[in-house]
Amino acid sequence: MTERNVPPADPGPAGPSTRHPIEGTASRKRVAIGASVGATIETYDFIGFGIAAALYFNTVFFPANDPLSGTLLSFATLGIGFAVRPLGGIIGGYLGDKIGRKPVLVASLLLMGVATVLIGALPTYDQIGVWAGVLLVLVRVVQGLAFGAEWGGAILMCFEHAPWRKRGLYTGITQAGFPVGLLLANLAFLASVPLGGNWAWRVPFLLSAILIAVGIIIRLKVEESPEFEELKDEGNIAKNPLTEVLRTDWRNILRAFCLRVTETAGYAVTVTFVLSYLVSEELADRSISLTATMIASALGIGATIGWGALTDRVGRRPVYLFGTIVTLLWGVPLFLLLNTGTAVAVVLAFVVSYAICQNSLAGVQGAWFSELFAARTRTTGASLAYQLSAVVSGFTPLIATALFAGFGWIGPALLITVYGLLGVAATLLTRETWGRSERAEVEALERSLALASPVRGEAASAESTASGR
User: Is the pTM of this model over 0.85?
Assistant: First the structure.
């Protein structure tokens, strides 16, 4: 079970305890918003590359006379960004556990912004030949490093500021930054379609400069994690978080890796590959595909938060098991819907794929993964597990394309089934961190705190009552 430090007696309104109070820190909402905004921006940048890779990059940065090869190379470039994310997760996690969560948040956002704007300014294959693809790969590597460092810091900041009873809800808010970023990225690409030519894909990347400036300002105002400050005050910072978590917690890393693969690799097939599939098979044009993704993303904002909040009531594992089972069963029905070529069917396919399959898993991961690891190695452990899966998911569109070339649509459909089966197995093998016993323990701590500090106890009771608990 996650460490639960009971705070000392109420220090008064002017000086909140430096230890993590059960009801969360005074800045918990501001931290959740700041983490969510940063996640939105980084997702806009990173996912924007996936949209462009599916719709434009096969002919922009690679020879246009062989569309299939161009698509394979484009998705391979997309995969490289995912492949280096574990390294970014290792670096960001190590620094997050050594010097703090906040510096990593600011640095990763700045690095991502610079790389994304550069993509919008890159020369094309027609201008410099093969060097266009080389430059695209280099910038994509920087994107991958930044995105790999981002998640652990953002989630852990939110998790460690949040009320113990609402960690699913608060980390769900941070995770909801991803569908917001996806929505904005699709909106930008949809709005830029009328521009035509290279501007249709350049403008969305160049617009990232505005988002980055806003995000940096917000994140600079976010307070450091209280649990990290506590570890620092106690002199309990891990000397080498990476070696320690690999030595003591490698099983949880493996479990979380398998859990994560189902979500992110499933998304890579059901959204990223499907975007290319719809266009190449002339089942839907770019406008319909992007509109369907936008609708699913908009619904996914509330869905992600809702799934996270649900885990606070019923536990992490039941919600995750539901999501993996739906994913397991969804592969063939998904392509049967898409193959009708009707706009309604395409929208429905994206909504189920994203708001149910993907969001039911993503909304749980922030709290569940964080609770699997001790505070002193939490950023490293959670980040490593989360980002290692990117190696698989990043190349999944490439695998799906190859399967489609060899077996038709049934190939990628069965690939979704395989990922769902992996998720079901991993869910059953991973311990519940917020079951009935854990919830009862927190209730007992709340009662103890109420007796020690009537003022704070009344506030915690009022918040619990307001939330319907």
Answer: no
Confirm if 411 and 106 have CB atoms less than 8 A apart: no
Where do runs of H (alpha helix) occur along 176-249?
Answer: 177-192, 199-206, 208-220, 226-233, 241-248
Is 265 within 8 Å of 400 (Cβ atoms)? no
- Beta carbons of 123 and 135 less than 8 angstroms apart: yes
Could you tell me the fold of the domain covering 28-456?
Answer: Growth Hormone; Chain: A; (1.20.1250)
Q: Report the alpha-carbon distance of residue 135 to residue 457 in Å, rounded.
A: 58
CA distance 9 to 442: 17
Question: Could you tell me which residues come within 8 angstroms of residue 313 by beta carbon, excluding any fewer than 6 positions away?
Answer: 469
Of 16, 11, 47, the closest CA to residue 354 belongs to: 47
Kindly report, residue by residue over 118-176, the tens digit of the pLDDT.
Answer: 888 899 888 888 888 888 888 888 888 888 887 777 888 888 889 999 999 999 999 99
Which residue in this structure is represented by tokens 């990117």? Answer: 390
**Residue 468, φ and ψ in degrees, nearest 5:** 85, 15
Question: In angstroms, rounded to a whole number, what is the distance separating the alpha carbons of residues 42 and 65?
Answer: 33
Report which DSSP code applies to 25. Answer: -
Please state, in angstroms and rounded to a whole number, the distance separating the CA atoms of residues 52 and 281: 18
Residue 287, both tokens: 């406008």
User: Is the Cβ–Cβ distance between 110 and 212 less than 8 Å?
Assistant: yes
Q: Where are the domains of the chain?
A: 28-456
Secondary structure class of 249 (helix, strand, coil): coil
d(CA 99, CA 153): 11
Radius of gyration, CA atoms only, the chain: 22
pLDDT, position 65: 66
User: Up-side HSE of residue 384: CA atoms within 13 Å toward CB?
Assistant: 27
